[in-house]
Amino acid sequence: MERSGLGDVYDVSGHGTKCASSIAGAQLDDVSSDRSGSIRLDLATGVAPAARLSVVDFGIETRLLMNIEQVDLEYLPVHAAAGAFITSDSWGSYGLGYSVKSRMILYLLMVILDLPAFDRFLWKNPDFISLVAAGNYGGMGYATSTIAAPATAKNVVAVGAGYRAPASANIIGALYFINSTIPGTGGSDLRKFVPEENTDRPLLASLLQNGTLQELVLADPITACDPLDNAAEVAGKVVLVAQVNRVDCDFDVQGRNVAGAGGAAMIVIAFSSSASNLVLSPPYPTAADGLPMSMILRSVGNTLVDRSRYGKVFLAGNTVRLDLDVVADFSSWGPTDPDGRIKPDIIAPGDGGLFAGVAGSGGGCEFTNNWQGTSAATPLQTAYPK
């Protein structure tokens, strides 16, 4: 690739190191010996320890990705020339669908990616397979699909993240949907709904037994910083409130006011549209101990507020056992938009694991880090293609 300045031995962020170690990571029994020495098998050992890797570096330490406009000419053939016919691609961007020239915002840098180029190359090279991270956008927006490009390509294997738990662990989670009236049309709209729940409290699903629907209504005032003026309307229903930046109006105060009005549950609209910032803190309202509490992204909350003002909004859901066969809540899901192809194609453990880690500038090493995401699941599946 004509970007040799990007090819260095440093990985300050650790993303590439974790991906590579998921496949081939192997710690020597004797760190003073050369790499031909015996290896130690532990929780951080890769699926194919000491396998040889072909690595292409097209990023810089700020996690910006450089332009690969023609992956069938500039990228995939590099691996093939090195004798590597299985690629693990833990990179991409949300909301682009599938097009001849999809313009991708990757970590604030515009990248032009020809998605069909993946398909052209893989069709012409049937002995070659590309596994691509589906993305960590499962909770994003009020969407019909959250699969990231280039996992939306047709001939790649899109890898989602599953849970690292056997069915025997009997870990229970929930799956939710929102059914609402579409403003201006009167039609109904059913969408997947992914709140961040406080699992030390009852789940929203506890209100939705036997397929029942629960109406979602707005608090008045929407901040719920004071006793609600619409207690008769919210009684027995799921109440939507807005997070505020006031020391005298935290989740404890909001929970007290919702519970005082007879609300059955509280959903908080976060300041942020970033899933990493969904933190219910302080997490435990003392005066509303039985109140289910959850938080949603601002973009999702704004849509629900609009739908609530124009018509009815209902919450549906049920409990599910979280095991190896269940897509993790953060993992992107399909079908693809607009053509409706099933994605992800496969899931692999991605809700947390132990991998080789890096720390500090200049690539200084620490032994291991915990990590989760479809970026973690993809190399695990790549190294175990069965």
Salient structural properties:
386 residues, alpha/beta, Rossmann fold, Glucose Oxidase, domain 1, 8-stranded mixed β-sheet, 4-stranded parallel β-sheet, 7 helices, 20 strands, 18% helix, hydrolase, protease
How would you portray this structure in words?
The chain has 386 residues and is an alpha/beta fold. The chain folds into 2 domains: 4-165 and 328-383, 3-Layer(aba) Sandwich (Rossmann fold); 172-321, Glucose Oxidase, domain 1. The protein has helices at residues 15-24, 71-81, 115-124, 231-234, 251-260, 298-310, 374-383; strands at residues 27-28, 39-40, 86-89, 93-94, 102-106, 109-113, 129-133, 148-149, 157-162, 172-181, 188-193, 196-197, 214-218, 238-242, 265-269, 293-296, 313-321, 346-349, 353-358, 365-371.
Number of domains: 2
The averaged pLDDT comes out at 81
Count up the helices.
7
The rounded Rg comes to 23 Å
Proportion in β-strands: 15-25%
- The count of strands amounts to 20
| Strand arrangement in the largest pleated sheet | 11-10-17-13-14-15-16-12
Can you tell me the CATH class of the largest domain? Alpha Beta
Write the layout of secondary structure elements.
Layout: H1 15-24, E1 27-28, E2 39-40, H2 71-81, E3 86-89, E4 93-94, E5 102-106, E6 109-113, H3 115-124, E7 129-133, E8 148-149, E9 157-162, E10 172-181, E11 188-193, E12 196-197, E13 214-218, H4 231-234, E14 238-242, H5 251-260, E15 265-269, E16 293-296, H6 298-310, E17 313-321, E18 346-349, E19 353-358, E20 365-371, H7 374-383
Parallel strand pairs: 3-7, 7-9, 9-18, 13-14, 14-15, 15-16
Antiparallel strand pairs: 1-2, 4-8, 5-6, 10-11, 10-17, 12-16, 13-17, 19-20
Helix pairs in contact: 1-7
